[in-house]
Design brief:
This protein is mainly β and 141 residues long. Helix content is 0%, strand content 48%. The strands form 2 sheets. Strands 5-6-7-10-9-8 form a 6-stranded antiparallel beta barrel. The mean pLDDT is 94.
């Protein structure tokens, strides 16, 4: 996506981009003076640190977009008791992206045999095809 704000508005690469109700949808990837490019969580080039909250614990993982359709979480601990319906949020481990912003819920968990980690598919909290208005969280100077 291209937005109509750029470096002249204080936008820098790596800032978080949010839809209505504070739902995290991606990051600024390129910045020009008067416009910027947003890389959505579903983009295959997208990566980001997230948290998965279960009834008993919070686990960290890394998102990766799949074919501009899905969001996959990789590197979840093998012993993590993650289930369908668990909440996925930003982790706060990335600069300029605070913790606790909604991303979606776990839809499916894959326990790769022979792998050291689990992975999961996330059902996004918003339909990316309906995005109209976005906000960029710009840090105070």
């Amino acid at each position: 996506l291209v937005i109509d704000r750029g470096s002249s508005d204080g936008i820098v690469s790596g800032l978080g981009v949010f839809a209505r109700d504070g739902i995290f949808v991606g990051k600024i990837s390129q910045v020009e003076e008067r416009h910027s490019v947003v890389i959505l969580l579903t983009d295959t080039a997208s990566r980001g640190a997230v948290s998965v909250s279960t009834e008993d614990a919070v686990y960290g993982g890394v998102t990766q977009g799949e074919h501009n359709l899905n969001i996959r979480i990789e590197f979840l601990p093998k012993e993590a008791m993650i289930r369908s319906g668990d909440t996925v949020t930003t982790s706060g481990l990335e600069e300029n992206i605070p913790a606790g912003f909604a991303i979606g819920i776990v839809e499916e968990v894959t326990d790769g045999s022979g792998s050291l980690f689990k992975s999961a598919i996330v059902a996004p909290a918003i339909d990316f095809s309906t995005l109209q208005f976005l906000s960029v969280l710009v840090p105070k100077k």
